[in-house]
User: What shape does this take?
Amino acid sequence: MTLHIDISRFLPSDVASKEVMALLAESVGNPTDSELEKLVATCNPADYPALWIASVFHRPIGVMRLDSQNRSNCTITHIAVDANLRGRGIGRKLIEFIRDDLDFRQVEAETDSDAIGFYQACGFKVESIQQNSYSIQRYKCTFRF
Assistant: This one.
């Protein structure tokens, strides 16, 4: 069964539901409520950074936060899918949304080894960049549409 996934921009007038905050928390790593609220508060209703919500029947199942300094390139700063729904194409749908609906020509992300398989499966070029202050290897992922 294929899920019909709606993707919409999170607007300041929207109330950040517990589901949205929980999804966003999965992409941050031990965040406080205050840190999550700041991430949401910095999202711009008409420009970037922007928070995009993937929903099924108005239930948030995925979240993606993008930043951009120009209309041709963007950076995925956060992306997460409900743990019970991973592997069903929701993350890929969020990536396709960048290409098909937002008209960016290139997207980048920085991640650790836990997510490089996802980015590679979506067609990203992955290169090792450095270890962070916690000695965790980081990777730069780039996709040109």
